[in-house]
Write a structure and sequence with these properties.
There is one protein chain. The chain is α+β, with helices and mostly antiparallel strands and 689 residues long. Helices cover 22% and strands 26% of the residues. Strand 4, helix 3 and strand 5 form a beta-alpha-beta unit.
Amino acid sequence: MSGHTLFVGEGNFSFSSALSKLSPENKITATCLQRQEDVKHEGAAANIQMIRDSGGTVLFGVDCTRLEECASLQGAVFNRVIFNFPHCGRKSGVKKNRELLKNFFLSCVKVLDEHGDIHVALCNGQGGTPADQPMRDWQNSWQVVAMAAEADLVLSSVQPFKSEEVESYKCTGYRSQDKGFHVENALVHVFTRSLPYTTPVRVTIKEIVGDQRVQYYVPIELSDFMTRDFLCSDSVHPIKLVQDYVVNGLEARCCITMTTKPPPFLLNSEQRQTASLDGDDVTESHCYEIQLLRQEPLTQRVNETELRCQLAYLDLKEKHTDPIESCVKSGSTTDTAVPNKSKNGGSMERLHVNPTGEYRPDKATPDVHKPNEDTSGVERPDVDTEKGSVGVFFVLRPSLLPQMEEMTVRRGEAKERGDLQTGKVVPVEEQIDGSHCRENTGASIGRMLGISGLVFRDVPISPWAPPVFHQLLLRGLFQAACQPITSLGQTLERLLSPHGVSVVKEAGCLYLTAQPMGAVGRVFASVGKHAEGWVQVTVSLNLDLIASCLFSLPDWRLLWTRDPCFSKCFDPCLPLHPPLGEPQPSMPLFRQPSLFSRRLSFDVSFWKGPSAWDDRKFHALAREACLGAVEKVELVDFFSRQEQQALRTSYCYRVTYHSHSHALSHTKALELHRRLESLLCSHLHVTIR
């Protein structure tokens, strides 16, 4: 341990004295609530002198719930704060001790370094977490995680309190007496600062769909998903690791070529029908309808670079200072800004697109995530009709199958001009990177074309139904005699079954399922006209859910956390892809940003507005208002009654808040719930009951 450590609530100073000897390089400040003349614990004087002799500081009369008021601590910042066995004194109840913890945390963060941590040692059972054995009833515990959340702190780890390793330590102060606490099986709870909740910004996309240039707003609840880059070539994100694991494993049975051409996010009406009919369990209700802001035909030939480099814009408010705007004004970036004004008066800054098709900021541009922007007053073109919008509706792609179908058709047409199977002719327009397509040593059954990227499903909020996920599609034409569906299914089963994924055959298709997420993929024969004796097989996988299963993540939302420690947990040098037939290693362990976070539920009841009720709009507003902290939404009741010659209908929804990555206190959850009520009133014109 090094840096500057603050000890609060010391009794006989034996713990801080012992650590001052163990870590002489660590600067120690030890404090207690009593005045110096009132500290009469056995050995206290010698311990105090030991701390001072080692260069440390001892302060008396310091209230740990008002650290910022202590004159001797003014301007001090600590890497670590340690509070061993807090107690209000005498025979105080759990409520008073909860209040002590909450006020301590609220005060402590004012003197804690940005990357510092807080260690709180509690007797077994007091914390109220599953780490306590046996776990005490929540209502009868000190609820340490909930109290820390009030100060935007998360529980990062729980460690046993090893008093025997601290020489000369003697626990004292039980009920304000010279008597020790029961430290057997005691636990040290380590807290760190939570990531801040970030309000989404409006994202505008400009891209080429077919022979049209289009521009449109992304539904604001999806905006944070658009600028991430998990599938880039140098990524070590779990989703990329899982894609490589599956592709490399399947290459034992067939040669796979992954396309690098980024398909557009939008589907036109013809592609939309393909997505609904081609067996990927997509219905019209799953589609995010998009009303275009601008549409114009291509009047000149577009080169390959322009086709691949689509533009994304952020519609930002002028009243907020943005790091991107600051860099552009100061000339600290070499990117070319696009000085344009939106109708809301915001500036529009340029983002680049990498070859994988995932939108991300240019390397010379700071992160575009804006934590302080409030979008509650921004018009929602995805909910209300945007004035002046083009009256043509497209949809965000709910599946990559339409793009896969187009690629398959183009390759079939190109094959008539050359032999693609032997590589004599490779059409330029395909932008296929086949460099990784190695010759497999096993019995190959053919070749497959692959594509991966984000897809969007307008689904109700539930624990394992992400509205955005990464889909991996593989398709190939095989001789039916090779039984490709069975062969590919067996390979996937060998790859994934050690991690809890089952392969079930139903109606000629193979379904990949896992608990508790449900379906995570399919292997099926695609509809189409093929030569006799040949069958076209498609593998469709939900990489997000498979990654959650393989890495034992408790929630798919963790894959989208911005906590840098999360990605660092995945070692890029881990031998993740051993030859098939050998025992599969366990996936790399990760540090969950927030342990033992509590679920909080609130009901919202209202009379619906004059328009027909659309349940999907409620879920969209819940995603926007709750900033990623909503886990489940349930309709618990509705009724209608006649009032003054008008029929009024009331709905009651139960919203469950839960986060594995952010501090979620009762206060914060209630704030998010009030924000949801405000958006419901302003956008859906409901009347809160």
